[in-house]
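@channel sequence for tomorrow's demo:
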Amino acid sequence: MAFSIDSLSSRAGMPTRSLFMVELLLALVLIRIPYLSVPFKWLESYFHEVSHALATLFSGGIVSHIELYPNGAGLCVSQGGWPVLIGFAGYFGAALWGLLIFHLATWAKGIRVSFSCLGLVVLASIVLWGRDLLTVAILLMLALLFLLPLKLSHSPLLTFALRVMALMVMLNALASPTVLLGMPGRGDAAMLAEQTWIPAWIWVGVWLLTSLTMLWLCWRRVDSANQVGPQKV
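structure tokens (generated this afternoon):
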């Protein structure tokens, strides 16, 4: 029998265990391909900086703007707020966004709403926090990444694409903090170490554990759904 996404997905948008492993492997490969991986690094960086921004607002601070760079790095410029929450929120938030997107991707009937909402969130970020042309251009590309798939009429392809996107965000959130280990005195981990006296490597370890936990929760959702049957998802 020929391989198809339809045959490996339930009608509720939940992949089978085997399809989930295919998606995870595909996500691992895509984030390793030069140039092709760049938009997805921007995606993780965007959710990282937006998480900083939301943490700033929630803790009483003010967000000036966010910046995204060609190499996949980013910056959130803000004033006030609780530094510990703001610093921790970046990598934690990116992984959490990935988990949220994965869950949205298992909601087959609402997949178009999910893509639309994510695209609109990115567009809103341009209005609220986009200041320089490069950041605005990158954010527009990310918005198109969510909005263009709406042209597809085949829902399984949409859910497949969104699940892979979500896994790529979580995998990038898993890989990104390790870079901080080679940057003594710089980055979110160093800032948190200054604020709390907890060594930077511990913060990096917490973020790694967080991202692994999010990936495990995705697997548990798929595994549990396939045990009880797609009709109960």
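heads up for whoever presents: The helical segments are 17-30, 38-58, 83-105, 111-129, 133-147, 155-175, 187-196, 200-228.
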